[in-house]
Structure formats: C-alpha cells, structure tokens
Amino acid sequence: MKTDKKFNLIDEQWIPIQGRGLFSLRDIFSEPSLRRVGGNPIQKTAIFKLLCAIAQAAWTPKTEEEWRQSTVEEFCRKCLTYLEKWHEKFWLYGDEPFLQFPEVKDVKVASFAALNLEKASGNTTVLTQIQLQSELSEADKAVLLVTLMGFATGGKKVDNSKILTPGYKGKSKSGKAGSSLGFKGYLHSYVQTSSVASTLWLNLFSEESLSKLPCYPEGVGTAPWEKMPAGEDCDVARKLKDSLMGRLVPLCRFCLLSDGGMHYTEGIAHDGYQAGRFDPTQSVARQKNDFKTLWADPDKKPWRSLTSILSFLGIQDASRFVCSQVEMGMSRARDCFETVELWSGGVRVTSNAGEQYLTGSDDFVESQFEFSPQDVGEQFFVNFSASVDQLDRLAKQLYSSVLGYFETMGTEGKTMAERATSKFWEIAGLHAQELIDSSFPGENPESVRNFFRATMRNTYNESCPHFTPRQLQAWAENQPNASKKGKK
Description:
- The protein is α+β, with helices and mostly antiparallel strands.
- The protein is built from 17 helices and 13 strands.
- The protein has helices spanning 25-28, 41-58, 64-68, 72-85, 112-115, 138-151, 196-202, 207-210, 235-241, 244-248, 306-309, 324-333, 378-408, 414-430, 432-437, 446-463, 469-477, and strands at residues 15-17, 21-23, 109-111, 188-192, 253-258, 261-266, 284-287, 290-293, 321-322, 340-347, 350-352, 355-357, 364-371.
C-alpha cells in the first residue's frame, strides 16, 4: 500500500465535467464555466453530495435571508478558503487518507472490478468490452471511493470480520446496502443551474431550513474529514447518523486503497427511509404509519415521476412526496435564475438473498428537463398533472386494445401489448420537454396532447397487422378510443 502523501483532491484533476475532462476541487469553485458533473448517475449524485458537504462545511447560513443576501462569488471564496484550511485532509494516500481507515489494513482486499457495478467480476458474463476492468487511474480511484461511501452494494464482497467499535453487534456476514442506494436503488433529484458552483450555492441548506427537517436532529453536523469516527458506533458515528453531513457523506464502508483493490468492510449503518431517515435528494411520502419512496426504474424513466417529485406545487397534502432538495432549489431559483434544470437519476439493482447486483433488466436511469422557475407554480402543476394523467389513460387504452386484438385473433397477446405500451412510453419520453413547456401558464397543451393521441393510434396500427379480412375485422373491433378511461 502507498503510504506517501500523493494525489491531493484539492489540487489534482479527478472530477469529471461533461464535455470538458477532469478538474480539481479548487477548479470547481474557481471556474464558473464548468457546467455539469459527468459520470454515470450514481457517480454524479455521489460527487454532488460530496461537493454539497464541502459547501456546507465552508459556510452554512443561519437564515434564509442571510442566504438571499449572499452571492455565488462570495460563496465560492468561502469554499476556497475552507479548502486551503483543510488541505492536509484531502490526500488520497498517507497517514490520514481521505475518507479511509488505516485500521482496516488487515481486512481482505476486494478488487476494483468487484466494487464497480459497471464491471464484470467473478463468473459474471461479459457482454461488451466496457464491462472489462482496465487499470484505474488515481482519479478513477477517487471517484470510486466517493461513490462507495453511499452507493455500495450489499452482499458478501465486504469482509465483516473486522469490528472497530468494541462490542458492536450490527455486522453480519452480508454487508448492508449503502444508505443512498437502498434495496432496489433510490431515485435522486436536485435542481441544476448554469454552473456547478452556482448549483451548489442554490442547494445550500441554511440552519433555518434544516430546523424544519426532522430527519436531521443534529443539524448540519461536522464534516467527516474534519473528525473521522473511530468505529461503526462511536459518538462521532452516531452524530453523523443524525446530521445532514452523515447523509451527504454516509461512510457506509470503511475502506483503504491498496494495490489492485480496497481493504473493504461495512462502516456506519444508517437508518432507512422507513424509519424516517433519508437523503435530501430522495423523494419520500408518509402515508399513515408507513413511508414510500421513489425508486430508479428502467421501465419507468424519471420524467414519469415528475408529478411526485414536484408534488409540493399542488395541494399541500400531508401524504404527498417530499424532496427537500428540489423544493428548496425551485423556491430559491424564482428570485435568481431565469431557467434551471431538474435532474433525476439513479440505478436499479436486484436484491437476492442479501446480494445486490445488476441483472439484464437493471440499468442506470437519468433525465433532466428545463424549467422557468417563475412559471413553476400551482397552475403549471395542474396542467402538467392533467397531461400525465392523459398519457397514463392512453397507455392503458393501448394495452387493452392490442391485447384485445390478439385475443380476437386467438393468440396470446400480453407480450405484444407490453411491447406496444413500452414503445408508446419511449416515444412520449422523447417529447417530455414539450409536454412540460406546454403546461406553463398561458400555453395551450392541446396540440401536444393531440400528438400523443395520434401516437397511441399509430402504435396500435403498427402493432396489429390489418391486411387480411380476419385481421382487418379484429383491428376494427379493438380500435383504441382516446376518450375511453382505459381497460374496461
């Protein structure tokens, strides 16, 4: 293992920026031209959360008014000053390696491929060249380390024979899923602006706003690199579990970089959304005595969950979904930005007997859509919800009609009905931004809705052959009608 001080995350280029390459932490707060963090959806979320943690540690305004009186430039200067102050804590190697535990150096090493969802390891079938693990650069290792803090998969890849807190009984042979991943893979959302720095400024919580969120009783908390926990359940670890810092950088794995892999064991076990604890980027709803959350779903792209993510715009129902990061970001953006983007993303994983992995039906999902925050209000939400409800009705009617056609023809039609519905939603997703734009006050959504009605009819025609007299009769009998409310 390397023990010399090498590769400082403040100085070295390791953060992927879309279309630009790699940049350092110092660059993030120095160059306003850096627009979007790159990588896959969980890497983007993990890096965003780390940057938010640095921002909160650098400056947490006491009130919302104090935040409103600030500027992006002032915010960036505070962050740069903070990074210089804590420069020695951001070495990837050394006596106090960033977010790592030298105490686990005797734990079994897990290969980098085994810890990376996108790479094949063990007896996994290799389908494409991209699944093969190439040698990781120091930048790759830094991104993997940050991602594993919250998005580590559950299972036996961890060596849980090592316990740092004396008497701690929370570990089993199978490691728990990371708090940002959960059982199936949470959907995360936040508001983006014209640069990474201004996005972080917009998403900065004040003490006032945090006091209204019961899932963080310790408030902001202390950044883990300032004071690392001694074990899984020490005083520092317990405070992290109760603070915003603990959700931004969860330390779900205690690990140490080594040649070819990581010494890797389970770290802090955070409570899940069902216990009322969750990331600020999660959408969670309380219904009676239970909680529900939004999951990443390759069959249901994130834009189809926008009515839940934006439900704070509608009737203030106690059982509505809440995404505190989006609600705060949209509210603030009305006074600061003409346009913003709502980003949502995650990964769908399969959980089986304590193991988590990607199957053929699992995948990464993400979407981003542009909004005019001044126009995103109750009327927009009413219009958009009505359009999405229409899409749901059209999809159900299409399924029913295609199924009816093949039943009339005397064959099994469920598979064809599912394919037709999937194709309809795929086309709808390509025009989701138009659906959003047509929902703003003063716009007429009927032209877009008519397009989707026509799409439903065209998809039915393409899915149901109507050349022979018998086919033509079945096709005519089961013609979809956009005015129907779905399957009878």
